[in-house]
Structure prediction request, 161 residues.
Amino acid sequence: MKQRYVVGLAIVIAIGLLTQVPFGLMKPQEKQDPFTSILNMLQSINSKLDTIIELLTPEEPEGSAPVVQSVEVQGDPVVGGLVYLFITVHDEDAGQALDINTKFIQLPPLSSASLIPSIGLTPAFIPDYPGDYGLRVTVTDETGQYDNYELTITIPEPSPP
Ligand SMILES: [Ca+2]
Prediction:
């Protein structure tokens, strides 16, 4: 009877040890878990917020704005003549693609003149009425920085034949 009791007790202790040891090992972790996991969660939220803020903050344009250096009027500035511009542009930042766009900001009354092409360094048009043709040349670089240049071409009244 005594032996049986001892064996039984030994089994109980063994089972107790086998189950308690893993629990014992896990207990310190369990105690840390809520704090550690909240800390980890906050750190992860913080880094995610940093990423979101980075994504939402508009990037500072890099480099400098391009410049319209000069616009020369070429061709035949009379009614029915072909007028074209010779534009020179410059950008300090090497290798940036530049978009050059020209449009009318003023036309003589009744005029339906149009710029063909309106993009590039040599836009052209045919004046259909005498008067003032106001033009705006805009150069834009890859970062969206731009420069405007405005000029007025005055087309004289056609001289009687
Ligand atoms: Ca630039």
